[in-house]
Amino acid sequence: MEKDQLLEQAYNLFENIPRESLGFFPTPLHRLNNISERYKAEVWIKRDDLTGPSIFGGNKTRKLEYLLGRAKQQGNDYVITYGATQSNHAMQTAIACRKVGLKAILYLVAVVPPGKGRPLGNLLLDRIMDAEVHIEPCPSGDAGEAMEKARSAAAVRMQELEKEGSSCYEIPTGGANDTGSLGYVRALMELREQIRQQPGLNGFDHVYQATGSGGTLAGLLAGKELLKEDYELVPVEVGLLKPGFKENVAALAGAALGLLGNKSVLEAESFMIEENFTGPGYEMPSVESSSALKELALAEGILVGPVYTAKAFAALLAHLQSGKIKKNSRVLFWHTGGASELFAEAQITGDDIIR
């Protein structure tokens, strides 16, 4: 079947899915001219850092269109979600809730403890949006244990609100569920249209993106299956990988397709995860990621975030340099946001980017 026909059919599948309009779409797709010349490849960027609705956009806005669509459909008053204190997802949830008249409650784990003074980065944005913020300490360094405590506290808070006559819609970390992943099925449909409209661009050989909780990746995999795309998807892990991650992502992609009436089953063996660019760990920069952040800024004037997108761009540059990406290949870097992390604690940003 022709790609145009597949795209038209895909749009029809979304007709009855509840959605709140939050972002400004399509986000720009453009060539990185200086990087392309430097590495003798066709390197493009998809600017999901510009999704809106504020200047601090990102990939979560696409997910939240469907998540908050469901929350509004069900008549909820509150949205509860989770993340680290500098969570892009939590920040974008707080902003999106303001736009659609919902109240955001954030349970955040202090993987990197916030300073005692004025809040920084995304935590400052959460406060500006008057989100109800609860911070769970992480003194042992076990973020999983701290998150379980946060979830228990959230369950108690939901019970309190329900007794008061309010209802809550719970969104998992990163918006990583089947409903949220629909945002990136739709994003691939948008990309297909942009490719069709771009003279001389017939598609991509490789697509690079940062992956953490797995919801964006699941949506991209589901969209790739739905539209029968044949490029290599390269998800770059940022320090959150746990046993069973690929199996969970494959199941999530299948569940997202199921919401659209598609019965395709994805196998964990059908995709790879690039695990060599996490650096010391989550929310900790590496020499490679700081160098990649700086190189993109100096070459193109574009900022990425140290926690996620700098690590994905570091992988892309390393693969260009090593020849893993062949000369003249067409490569897309999917910028999923995170530049607001540059205004976070020094442990997150690192010192290499200002040397």
Q: Which descriptors would you attach to this protein?
A:
single chain, 355 residues, alpha/beta, Rossmann fold, 12 helices, 43% helix
Would you mind describing this structure in some detail?
Helices cover 43% and strands 14% of the residues. With 355 residues, it is α/β, with parallel strands linked by helices. It has 2 domains: 3-58 and 176-354, Rossmann fold (3-Layer(aba) Sandwich), CATH 3.40.50; 61-175, Rossmann fold, CATH 3.40.50. It has a 5-stranded mixed sheet with strand order 1-2-9-7-8, sandwiched between helices. β3 (78-84), α4 and β4 form a beta-alpha-beta unit. The chain starts with a helix and ends in a 6-residue tail after the last helix.
Q: What is the count of β-strands?
A: 9
The succession of helices and strands, N to C, reads HEHEHEHEHEHEHEHEHHHEH
Largest sheet: 5 strands, mixed
DSSP helix fraction: 40-55%
CATH class of the largest domain: Alpha Beta
CA(first)-CA(last) distance? 53 Å
Q: What's the shape?
A: globular
What share of the residues does DSSP label as strand, in percent? 5-15%
CATH architecture of the largest domain: 3-Layer(aba) Sandwich
Widest sheet, order of strands: 1-2-9-7-8
Number of helices: 12
Uncertain segments are none
